[in-house]
Design brief:
The complex is a heterodimer of chains A (186) and B (344).
Chain A (H helix, E strand, L loop, with lengths): L1 E6 L6 E6 L5 E4 L6 H16 L8 E5 L5 H18 L2 E5 L1 H8 L4 E4 L5 E2 L9 E4 L6 H24 L26
Parallel strand pairs in A: 1-4, 4-5, 6-8
Antiparallel strand pairs in A: 1-2, 2-3, 6-7
Chain B lengths: L2 E6 L4 E8 L4 E8 L1 H4 L7 H23 L6 E7 L5 H18 L3 E4 L1 H10 L9 E6 L4 E8 L2 E7 L5 H11 L7 H8 L24 H11 L8 H26 L4 E5 L6 H14 L2 E4 L2 H4 L4 H12 L30
Parallel strand pairs in B: 1-4, 4-5, 6-9, 9-10
Antiparallel strand pairs in B: 1-2, 2-3, 6-7, 7-8
Helix pairs in contact in B: 2-3, 4-11, 5-6, 5-7, 5-8, 6-8, 8-9
Classes of the chains: A alpha/beta (186), B alpha/beta (344).
Chain lengths: 186, 344
């Protein structure tokens, strides 16, 4: 089974490739290249490292948020298009769902505005992840490799359990209501 | 048979279409967001982007299904990456790039306004020759000297609002639901176009530029008095007459200034009933043949994207996968907005 995990919720887009029992491979985008290039450069690099084509993928796992709205939306749309074209499955997991598998007690996130984003109704998170830490790309990736491993594992579990993974149904998850309190301009 | 899938997400319509190499539209699906934006009397960019992301793959799948095609049948993907709301455009580009990369087929990046220009050419081959194009919609308002497909000279543009934007705003003053352009048109049919003498901005300034911002205020002032008995239909008809007078005069002047005998009209406002009556009449007097894009290709759609891509492929374009969203790209001379390169 060949899986890719993609996470564009933070300062860089990171990805991981797992093929059978071989060790996972990882890649990170460049900084400040815009949402679209950030997403596809990370994905392209990890596939290139594994010397495989998109058509070889069985499934793609993507973090559906919280995080940068635009980057996350682009990542989810890109994965949906890629999986649809490659006839692969696509699985989306929120950062909170990944966090629960990552560490007992779950995680909270610090967004680009420095605000702490927690899962509504959940007990206090055991760990906080700073999505936009001002660090270099390689440091960012090395801090998040274990996170990507969890995403790959969730994808493998979803495959094993027979989840449909229809790319057409893949959706971004929003944890803040954009228009909360917005003035109706009429 | 070569099939191209076009994707278009410039503003608040999510569109996908399949066009073959004879420029036949095999399918054209447009998913509008009017209900999302109606309460705001305008498009909210973040909401537009969210709706695009929610439905883009469904729209693509429907376009393929209606064309009787599968992803493996496509020879290229085309996408507007050069005009529109950045948050909306990136969604289309992401979906298109993912599909093209997965299939290992070319991705053809295109300019939304160029595709509108091509929407008339698709239906009238005479327009492959030099002509003037009046491109008039909610997001753009320009007079373009089309030297050939891919070679454009913008010779007039709006200095503020587009005509389509003015139609939508006036519609809101008259209590019509957004987007109100078609509703104003419908309302105007029952009104007196001479009831109010609204200004014709820049009509006699000697340039080919437009300005519709200043027209809104007098219309609004009149619209606010409607409770005293004035007819909304009269306001709509008088406003429409003012806009059409300007569009017709400037379009004819543009053709005459370049000694060009053909004129095309594209974009959402090209559906307007009065414009469709008046411009051909003025063209006939001036010896200029006027062609309107068919209504199904006037509002935002992806058939014009896929059609333009088919033409460019025929002319040797090979596409590129290193594509980003650059929504303020100029529409320029000699393919300035399109650089064929090797598929990587």
């Amino acid at each position: 089974m060949t899986l890719v995990a993609l996470d564009a919720c933070g300062r860089y887009t990171i990805s991981a490739l797992k093929r059978g029992d071989a060790p996972a491979l990882y890649a990170v985008s460049d900084a400040n290249v815009g949402a679209v290039r950030s997403v596809y450069s990370s994905m392209d690099r990890v596939l290139e490292k594994g010397e495989i084509k998109a058509a070889d993928l069985d499934a793609i796992v993507v973090n559906t948020g919280p995080g940068s709205w635009t980057n996350t939306r682009v990542a989810v749309t890109y994965v949906a298009g890629l999986a649809f074209g490659a006839e692969a499955k696509a699985f989306g997991f929120s950062g909170f769902a990944i966090g629960k598998a990552f560490t007992e007690g779950g995680v909270a996130f610090i967004d680009q505005l420095g605000k702490t984003v927690t899962e509504q109704g959940a007990p206090a998170a055991q760990q906080t992840i700073e999505l936009f830490a001002e660090i270099g790309a390689d440091d960012f990736l090395s801090r998040r490799q274990a996170w990507l491993d969890v995403m790959l594992r969730l994808g493998a579990d979803a495959m094993a359990s027979g989840r449909p993974g229809d790319p057409v149904e893949l959706q971004t998850t929003y944890f803040q209501e954009f228009l909360a309190g917005a003035r109706n301009k009429t | 048979m070569s099939l191209v899938l076009g994707i278009e997400t410039a503003c608040d319509d999510t569109a996908a279409a399949v066009v073959d190499d004879a420029l036949r539209v095999r399918s054209s699906v447009v998913w509008g967001q009017q209900q999302t934006h109606e309460q705001f009397n305008g498009v909210v960019p973040e909401l537009a982007a969210r709706r695009h992301a929610e439905v883009i793959l469904r729209v693509v799948k429907q376009a393929l299904d209606e064309a009787g095609a599968k992803p493996g049948d496509l020879s290229a993907i085309a996408v507007n990456n050069q005009h529109g709301l950045i948050r909306s455009v990136v969604v289309g580009v992401a979906a298109a790039r993912g599909l093209a990369f997965a299939r290992g087929i070319p991705l053809i990046p295109l300019h939304h306004v160029e595709a509108h220009v091509f929407s008339a050419i698709m239906t009238d081959p005479a327009l492959f020759e030099e002509h003037i194009c009046l491109a008039v919609a909610g997001g753009h308002n320009a007079l373009i000297h089309v030297h050939s497909v891919g070679d454009y000279e913008v010779i007039g543009r709006t200095l503020d609002d587009s005509a389509g934007e003015a139609f939508d705003k006036v519609g809101s003053y008259l209590g019509l639901p957004f987007p109100a352009g078609a509703q104003v048109d419908k309302l105007a049919r029952g009104g007196n176009p001479r009831a109010y003498d609204f200004p014709r901005p820049k009509l006699k300034d000697g340039t080919l530029n437009f300005s519709f911002s200043g027209l809104k205020t007098p219309v609004r002032m009149v619209a606010e008095k409607l409770q005293h008995g004035e007819s909304a239909a009269d306001v709509a008809a008088s406003f429409e007459r003012a806009v059409v007078d300007v569009l017709v005069a400037k379009a004819i002047a543009a053709a005459q200034s370049r000694d060009v005998k053909r004129l095309s009209v594209v974009g959402g406002v090209a559906c307007n009933t009065l414009l469709r009556e008046e411009l051909p009449r003025a063209g006939e007097k001036a010896g200029i043949t006027v062609t309107f894009a068919p209504p199904r290709l006037c509002t935002d759609n992806a058939a014009m994207i896929a059609g333009l891509a088919q033409y460019k492929i025929r002319e040797g374009a090979v596409g590129a996968l290193d594509v980003d969203a650059t929504p303020n790209a100029p529409l320029g001379r000699r393919n300035a907005n399109y650089r064929p390169s090797q598929t990587t």
